[in-house]
Amino acid sequence: xxxxxxxxxxxxxxxxxxxxxxxxxxxxxxxxxxxxxxxxxxxxxxxxxxxxxxxxxxxxxxxxxxxxxxxxxxxxxxxxxxxxxxxxxxxxxxxxxxxxxxxxxxxxxxxxxxxxxxxxxxxxxxxxxxxxxxxxxxxxxxxxxxxxxxxxxxxxxxxxxxxxxxxxxxxxxxxxxxxxxxxxxxxxxxxxxxxxxxxxxxxxxxxxxxxxxxxxxxxxx
Amino acid sequence: xxxxxxxxxxxxxxxxxxxxxxxxxxxxxxxxxxxxxxxxxxxxxxxxxxxxxxxxxxxxxxxxxxxxxxxxxxxxxxxxxxxxxxxxxxxxxxxxxxxxxxxxxxxxxxxxxxxxxxxxxxxxxxxxxxxxxxxxxxxxxxxxxxxxxxxxxxxxxxxxxxxxxxxxxxxxxxxxxxxxxxxxxxxxxxxxxxxxxxxxxxxxxxxxxxxxxxxxxxxxxxxxxxxxxxxxxxxxxxxxxxxxxxxxxxxxxxxxxxxxxxxxxxxxxxxxxxxxxxxxxxxxxxxxxxxxxxxxxxxxxxxxxxxxxxxxxxxxxx
Lengths: 221, 318
Description:
The complex is a heterodimer of chains A (221) and B (318). Chain A has 221 residues and is mainly α.
């Protein structure tokens, strides 16, 4: 068996790296780059799940970890890449909140997430577990995903925001209860997968009808 | 007496290594870039020849300039030399580490920057003023980012003294691996690139009016003045690389003056710095220069990453 201290340390480092990918998504403007970062984020998340399996013997997460890597790390990104290739929109140009301000807001979000999670963590006796300390990070990732959905206008970026939120949810599930029951996980995966496919088609249709994928225009329907 | 001689010995080795390794690091970056772009490139010791040539050449001073223009190269070089004595490179406690901590280092950089920017305006050319204003506006974001990144490590070690930080981290290797250190490292790396005028921020190889930042300020310099400024900026790059190498990976630092630990120290330091230099060259090759208005976004990433690093330290704890 591996040293549990190293396991918890690597989980913390991976969680921090996932947070960094979320920040880089906020800081960039190329749609393809978003998708690649999301793929990387999902694979890192799968690695966290695998570490939970190895370190704490929770074998039921094994399937969830494999699903995360395959579905969110490979299938969904390639589907989104195809959509981006088809609609020929490469860059986000118009922002509701500009990048510099977005980054500062996201930094505030991390502080907020910590202050939200702190009371929950303080009530627990098991707070020495590393997985548990990842909770503030996962809440921050969820809220950054939400922020991406609010601040970005392109439909593809909003999908990425949704997916980032979902990754945050999965990470918080891992951190509090070592993952949700398998049936719930599979349900969520199926949900996300179908949602992305439908949204992909939807983006394509928006582009055909309006010649843009900026969701701003949709108000003029 | 022996202690005094040891201190003097450590002191002079530190000074000599930093002074004479800096042009070589620059040469390695240039050579790596050239090879990656399918060029032969100049020899890696070319920067030494450049400096020697410049030192011998005649100095031309603009008629409109004041004493600031003449004094700046020496101030830039002297303040960089002062930093060299504060940054641990081969020895873990540098002899004069009690003179100043990381905040001193940051403000010594600021003195050099301030005078170079003044000299840029002083020369009276339009480019100089442009370069100065750009340099100062970029510096206003870099400085806090750099401070936060280094404070993250300082919090882990419980001191702002660079030598003590490096000592504490190298005696407890487990504390080096911390999620917030990963973030702080990335933050400080972006700061390094911006501060030393490397490619996504500034291009050290061109003199194109619209894009240059650092080159624009020193456009009027020639002869030995230019040599001092160039040498100072090469040492500055080496200082940043050794900060990155020794604060985040303090392996193989010499703790005493025995010849074995000295050789290990010098070897470890050169290897770490060369690896980082090659990474810098890779980044320069893989990226295009950013538009000036996009530079603050990159620097903001560095700032926010360093800020998050500090926050994460308190969230995740030790």
